[in-house]
Write a structure and sequence with these properties.
Shape: elongated
Organism: Micromonospora eburnea
Helix content: 40-55%
Strand order of the largest sheet: 4-10-9-8-5-6-7-11
Radius of gyration: 31 Å
Distance between the termini: 72 Å
CATH superfamily of the largest domain: Endonuclease Chain A
Number of strands: 13
Strand content: 5-15%
Oligomer: single chain
Number of domains: 3
Order of helices and strands: HEHHEEHHEHEHEHHEEEEHEEEHHHH
GO biological process, one term: regulation of DNA-templated transcription
GO molecular function, one term: DNA binding
Protein name: Sugar-specific transcriptional regulator TrmB
Largest sheet: 8 strands, mixed
CATH topology of the largest domain: Endonuclease, Chain A
Length: about 325
């Protein structure tokens, strides 16, 4: 029997037992001798298969000599087997919860290794990143900045689709330099179309991924594209995780929302021309003059200035100038 002919293996029926069961469906009331001829099995293998089938209530034995076997109808068999497998999986889930309660060893000397896992290979790092995405239940927050070890955008887009299909919100903060990488802007557009909330900042300090704000993934090497995903740390709930979450929140508040109209980016990132907008705004130049200088519409300039004011937590342009001065601008 070919592998693709097997359907009962998924519910715990062995290959031999399924072959005998199929033979009985086609030859009701077959004897052991007849089944040996039909299956080509030896006496021992056939007896084992029949014992399995009887144990699963898939066949019955007729009275008389020689013994003959009758198959139970497939719709009845499959329903019982599926229900049995579901009950077994439910027990596994319950056992897994009990095992989880034993996972964190109370001994103080083991505490550090519980809080921080070390991934020492590219394969382990990639698998852990996938687990964090698939395991997220409440949120997935990511810093996106170069260098990138590889440009396999399809993988993250597929995982993102599965994540959002489960109702898990996803947010990404893109470094300006990331959007200049080949294919990244189109990738960001696809992610936004799937439902990711995205913002852009200038100068993200590191790569970082947060799953449910309870687990963080940080690569060891932040600047080498060849080694960018070779190894990393998985940080669980502790003071270090709290600091990483706070860092992510700070950059989220600073970021400019990344929006798309159709295929085109409608809100540009806080790119090099933002310094020009700030300089001209503080100097008192009107919006129309700033727009002419930058080659954009006055509405775009007003929206950009409003975003700057929101990020600074002020309501007027004068207040924005004061806040920027306190932050040391323009020497940033």
């Amino acid at each position: 029997m070919r592998d693709n002919d097997r359907v009962l293996g998924e519910v715990g029926v062995s290959d031999s037992a399924e072959r005998v069961y199929r033979s009985l469906l086609a030859n009701p009331g077959a004897s052991v001798t007849e089944l040996r001829a039909l299956t080509g099995f030896g006496q021992r293998r056939l007896r084992g298969a029949l014992s399995e089938l009887e144990g699963k209530a898939m066949v019955t034995r007729r009275s008389g000599s020689p013994a003959r076997y009758q198959s139970v109808p497939p719709d009845v068999v499959v329903e019982v087997l599926v229900r049995s497998r579901e009950e077994a999986l439910h027990r596994v889930r319950l056992d897994a919860k009990r095992l989880a309660s034993l996972h964190r060893v109370p001994a103080e000397q083991d505490r550090v290794t519980e809080l921080i896992e070390v991934m020492t290979s590219r394969e382990a790092y990639a698998e852990r990143w996938k687990q964090l995405q698939l395991g997220a239940r409440r949120s997935l927050d990511v810093f996106v900045r170069p260098p990138f070890a590889q440009q396999r955008f399809e993988d993250s887009e597929s995982l993102q689709e599965r994540l959002l299909a489960r109702g898990v919100p996803s947010r990404g903060i893109y470094d300006e330099e990331a959007l200049k990488q080949p294919g990244m802007l189109e990738h960001a557009r696809k992610m936004a179309a799937l439902g990711e909330e995205a913002r852009v900042v200038k100068g993200l300090p590191m790569k970082l991924s947060l799953s449910d704000r309870r687990t963080a993934l940080v690569p060891f090497v932040q600047s080498d594209p060849i080694r960018a995903a070779d190894a990393g740390l998985v940080v669980h709930e502790c003071a270090l995780l709290d600091a990483l979450v706070a860092l992510w929140d700070i950059y989220w508040e600073r970021g400019v929302q990344l929006r798309f109209d159709g295929q085109e980016l409608s809100t540009r990132s806080r790119a090099a021309d933002e310094d020009t907008v700030l300089t001209l705004m503080v100097s008192g130049m009107k919006d129309e003059a700033i727009a002419a200088r930058l080659g954009v519409s006055a509405q775009t300039v007003r929206r950009r200035i409003s975003e700057i004011q929101r990020r600074l937590g002020v309501s007027t342009r004068f207040q924005a100038g004061v806040a920027l001065g306190r932050q040391g601008w323009p020497a940033r």
